[in-house]
Specification:
Elements (H helix, E strand, L loop, with lengths): L14 E2 L2 H6 L6 E2 L9 E4 L5 E9 L2 E9 L9 E3 L7 E10 L3 E9 L4 E11 L6 E11 L12 E6 L15
Parallel strand pairs: 4-10
Antiparallel strand pairs: 1-2, 3-4, 5-8, 5-11, 6-9, 7-8, 9-10
Length: 176
């Protein structure tokens, strides 16, 4: 009968080196047991029929172009548009129907305006059925400026840094 050491936890995922690498000291090949995370924007459908789009880590006060594909929604049809947004941090710039099999390709711009887990909402409406719409929530984890540069997911592209006030670099006269 096998026994476990008290206080030991089984390892899930990790890095494994081959015997030749350990003996030779070579570090050119590293094998990961499990894929740590997906590297693309994740789109999932919620219970109510709405969609959640997870775009990963972003950096505060930076502007991003985010592109993702939503599945085709029969109720909306082929011709859809984004309802005017009340939120200035998220702007839908383009929506096209790739195909009914593929779905809608949505492109938007997003300004990461504060730290933390942020959820911004857009509503997509049918041009042919005035009663048909879906809600799409874009979720991002926004890092402060002191935590480095995040690795962006496929479908997310940094298109600029917003100006921010930094008191240490103030050019105001008389404050030397």
């Amino acid at each position: 009968m096998a026994t476990a050491n008290k206080g030991s936890n089984p390892k899930v995922g990790g890095v494994r080196f081959s015997a030749t690498q350990v003996m030779e000291g070579s570090s050119s090949h590293v094998h990961f047991d499990e894929k740590l995370h997906d590297s693309v924007v994740m789109v999932s459908q919620e219970k109510e029929g709405d969609f959640l789009v997870k775009v990963g880590f972003l950096k505060i006060m930076h502007k991003y172009e985010i592109t993702f594909v939503l599945p085709f929604v029969q109720l909306l049809g082929k011709d859809i548009y984004a309802a005017p947004l009340t939120n200035l941090n998220l702007t839908v710039t383009n929506i096209t129907l790739a195909s009914e099999a593929t779905g809608y390709r949505v492109k938007c711009e997003y300004v990461a305006h504060k730290e933390g887990v942020l959820r911004e909402e857009m509503v997509l409406c049918s041009k042919t059925n005035s009663n048909a719409s879906i809600r799409v929530v874009v979720q991002a984890r926004v890092m402060d400026r002191h935590h480095g540069t995040p690795m962006l997911l496929d479908g997310v592209k940094c298109i600029g840094a917003e100006l921010e006030y930094d008191s240490e670099q103030s050019e105001w006269p008389g404050f030397d």
